[in-house]
Amino acid sequence: MYHESDSDDDDEDSEPILESASIPLDSTTNRIRMHQTPASNSSNPPTTLTATMTEAGQVLIHDITPHLTSFDTPGFQLTPQHNKPLSTLRMHKSEGYAVDWSPLVSTGKLLTGDNDGKIYVTTRTQGEGWAVDSRPFVGHHGSVEELQWSPSEKNVFASASSDGCIKIWDVRSKSRTAALSVQVSDVDVNVMSWNKQTTHLLASGDDNGTWAVWDLRNWKPSANGASSKPTPVASFNWNKEQITSIEWHPTDDSIVAVAA
Q1: pTM, whole model, 2 decimals?
Q2: Residue from 229, 247, 184, 228 nearest 210 by CA
Q3: What are the pLDDT digits (tens) for 157-171?
C-alpha cells in the first residue's frame, strides 16, 4: 500500500541539487548589485541586470536574464555571447566599491564611486546604450565606500566615505557639490542603508564597530559647506570589529540587520 508520507520520506533522504551559472571576469569583483527592468510586453519577461564594480576600476553591466531562464527551461543552452557585458564603463581611474541602482528609474540608472572620492551617474539610453555623465560629483576627502539612492526622491542620493562623512546630493545640481554634509564618525564609514518605509531614517556603520540611526530631518546645511555634527537617533557599539554590512528590513521600518 502506498502512503503519501513514504514520498515525503524519500524527498527528505534525497541529496539536494544545486544548479549554477557563471560569468567569467578578468578582474576581482569588489561589489555587485542587481536591477530588474519591467517587461516591455506580455510576451517578454522582465530583464535582470547586474552592475559589477571591479578591482581594475571598470564597471561591467550584464544581462543575466538568460542565466535565470536556464534554471527553469530544460535544454536551454547558454552561449559565450550571453556572458558578454552589455557595456564596460571605464570612467573610474581607481578601483571602487560603491554601486547602487535607482529604485525609481525602471529603465536603469546607476551610481558608482571610487577610491579617489569621485561619484558618477550612468543612465540607460533609449537605444539600449549607457550614457555616463562625464562630470563627477566630488567632495569627499577619502574613498567612497557606499552609495544609496533615495527611496522616495529620484534625483537624490547619499554617499558614505572613509573620511567619516555622509553627504546628500541632488543630481540636478550644476555645481556638483553636496546639499548636506554630516560628520557621522571619526573613522571610516563602511556601509549605509536608507529606510525604504520611513524615508527620513538612514543607518550607518563604521570601522569602530559602531552603527547608528540618523533622522535626516535634523540635518541642516552648515556655513561654507562645512560638515555639521548632529546627534543620532540611536547609536550602538555592541560589535567588536568593523561593520561590514547593514540593511533595513524591506517592509518593517523598525528592524535592521547588522554584520561585523
Answers
A1: 0.90
A2: 184
A3: 999 999 999 999 999
Distance CA 222, CA 220 (A): 6
**Separation in Å, CA 221 to CA 66, 201, 217:** 47, 17, 11
Partnered with residue 31 across adjacent β-strands are 53
In one-letter notation, the amino acid at residue 80 is P
Cell of 148: 544609496
How far apart, in Å, do the first and last CA atoms of the chain sit? 54
Strand boundaries in 163-220, DSSP class E: 165-170, 180-183, 189-194, 201-206, 211-215
| 34 phi and psi angles, rounded to 5 deg | -110, 150
Return the bridge partners of 182, or none: 166, 228
Query: Strand pairing of 234-236 and 211-215?
Result: antiparallel
What is the tens place of the pLDDT at every residue in 104-158?
999 999 999 999 999 999 999 987 799 999 999 999 999 999 999 999 999 999 9
> Residue 107: CB partners within 8 Å, gap ≥ 6?
37, 124
Query: Alpha-carbon distance 199 to 136, whole Å?
Result: 26
